[in-house]
Amino acid sequence: xxxVTGRARLGRAARASVCALALLSPAPLAVPQxxxxxxxxxxxxxxxxxxxxxxxxxxxxxMPRITVSGTRLSxxxxxxxxxxxxxxxxxxxxxxxxxxxxxxxxLRSVHAGPGASRQTVVYRDVAARDVRAGKAAELSAAGAAxxxxxxxxxxxxxxxxxxxxxxxxxxxxxxxxxxxxxxGPVQRVYASVSIADVVYTxxxxxxVKLARVxxxxxxxxxxxxxxxxxxxxxxxxxxxxxxxxxxxxxxxAAADLVEAVSVGGxxxxxxxxxxxxxxxxxxxxxxxxxxxxxxPEAGMNLEDLAFAQKGVRSRVGKLTLTxxxxxxxxxxxxxxxxxxxxxxxDALRRLTPVIGTLAMQDISLDLPPEAGKAAPAPAPKxxxxxxxxxxxxxxxxxxxxxxxxxVKSAPAETPLHVGLRNAAITFGPPRDGVPTASRxxxxxLTLPASTVAGVPGLGxxxxxxxxxxxLNVVADTAWDEGRRELSVREVSVSGKDMGTLRLTGTLGGIxxxxxxxxxxxxxxxxxxxxxxxxxxxxxxxxxxxxxxxAQSKVLSLKPDELRQEYVTASVLGVPVxxxxxxxxxAIGAAMGQFVTKPGRLSVTAKAxxxxxxxxxxxxxxxxxxxxxxxxxxxxxxx
Length: 638
Fold this sequence. Notes:
The protein is α+β, with helices and mostly antiparallel strands.
């Protein structure tokens, strides 16, 4: 993220560039074309101005020569329009600008600050065509060169051809220099803007390249103090050390600018960011970036993303962001614009925007071989029929003739590859900065089974014959502040040729204090949480059979014999462990049916007391049966 000071400098530099172009623009004729055509041909002339210098605060524009062709204005008229210290507003003067074309072989923009830093942009062969009443039909420049020197950050770069259409210079002047209430109509400044072949390299060796940038319908609203005043509010300000008055001024300016800027659409192609002088050089590439403010394509789209650094390579086919809104951020900034308001953690948390939905497609990640080394595993113990720990891993490995994991693992020979077909995460509108709903969905998560070798419960997957995992994951929750409930609408994990584990439920006693950034407050609030309902479903599509086959070989039993042992353990042993209550017997019976014919097992539990089963109920219960007595349980198989 760009530092505030950096953003200020970039913003003011952009303003300088825009102002430079603003003086060279055209527009539709304000008087009837026929009437203009009837004027005497002798009134039309070409005028050349020499050594024009225009100061705009800390930015100075210098034009050694301007040629104004096909104009009815005299040299004095043009000088009056471009007079730097004129008391007449820029918008009024620019409205009088009228010419067939303006050409400027060289336009130099020098911006001073912060400190000793100087940013210089030199535009070549600038031309504006069909300039009428302060508007230009077309504006172009053959290219530009930019240098930043004198400050802590230095660099240089170039721009290729620059073009714009339907430029309203008077509107641009009003936005920057004339104050408004921020509620007026949007004034369009550019119908379209394009910049080609952008290259910039800083002193750290970071190079940014852009093949082409295009924008459409760019404009905004007039705001208090004008855009110039809002941008100047950020100059050289350290928010950490700012006084309450300065902080209020900056936050108000930020809110004004966010609401004022209007962008119909933006598109950039061929972006690359590379670091050549770093100890670990990196390369980031994005084939296409697009933003649309309205319509069916509203949102942000990125295509063909690639990242590489020190053997790590990743790619994303497409990334989209929809439903994003800065409305909560603006509202929080408005609150902080009061000098009496304090920038507390709660206040800053409210700056969180509406994220909407972030979706990605065709994701891949390749890690170097050393990153895929298996973690050292503890020395294996002799297999036992009642062994604990990672269930049955050692026995399963023996059944398949594989050696147990040793303390020292050999390094992987090939890079570790992780893939993901689709991913999406959605956040609902935030309440005091906390999303009230969220949904995460991962489809087609593929990775070698060896990568989970050290994870309890998953380490035996390779021993059961799984070489590569293909998983789907869903986590969907919603918070109801009024009912103080958190609904777990779905938490599920499913694997190809394995099965599905799905959980839903409702938690009570979940108030806003549970999201407090203070761990002490949120931790105390968790003690009042209660479990109201729970629904657990397990579906088998191959994992259970592989487990039975592997275990039967280790124990020298036929698969059907081992299966019958597990049936007996489920029907008789589970109820004893759970207290031998009717609910415990129902769970044991359902598990026995599932083992006999492994298909689908579901267990539903609902608290008999409407308030739910609390943390204290679990901690003071003498046995699992004491907890089950507080629940209505329904267990079924197949």
